[in-house]
Amino acid sequence: MPRSAQYDIEEILQQAVDIFLEYSFHGAIMDEIIARTSFNRRGFYLEFGSKQQFLYKVLEHYQTTQLMPVVSELETHQGITAINTFFLRYIPLVYSRGCLLINCVCELGKQDATVREMGRHYLDRLQLDFIGCLEKARLNGEIKAEINIESAALQLTSYVQGFAVNGILAENKEEMVIATEALLTPLQL
Description:
The chain is mostly helical. The chain has a single domain (50-187), classed as Tetracycline Repressor, domain 2 (Orthogonal Bundle). Helix content is 72%, strand content 0%. It contains nine helices and no strands. The radius of gyration is 19 Å and the shape is elongated. 27% of the residues are buried.
């Protein structure tokens, strides 16, 4: 009869999010992962197979537990308010550490089709959600009628990517809030 696992997989995945945000994928060595997750090496390879497969699980966990709760605000399609709330919730997530998914796309996206696909799916979802919010904003008279919604949504999506990187470099959260206001103000009436 097989023994049951002596570890909490969700806890391990959360600890790994911190490790990969701190060191990046290539910088995170197996000894550090094993030490900080309290996993033993044999159990790790039985559970995940490889560091690469482990990363995919960590990215799925990160998206589910950290990114999607922030993105869910956009999915209400409540106009400019939803977009502003999204950025206000995104700032604490990416401030000083960046976004794990965007960081991994920057580091691995060229050579890793799975990471590239995860990133593309996330950005496509964001763009569609921004389109929905902007369409609602137009119906509510919150944005200028001449705004090209698809172009504005693409700009917002691109900003999210840059925001994830800027979060690592920003001196404080306030400068990120100011940048968000500067992006959204020209769209509004």
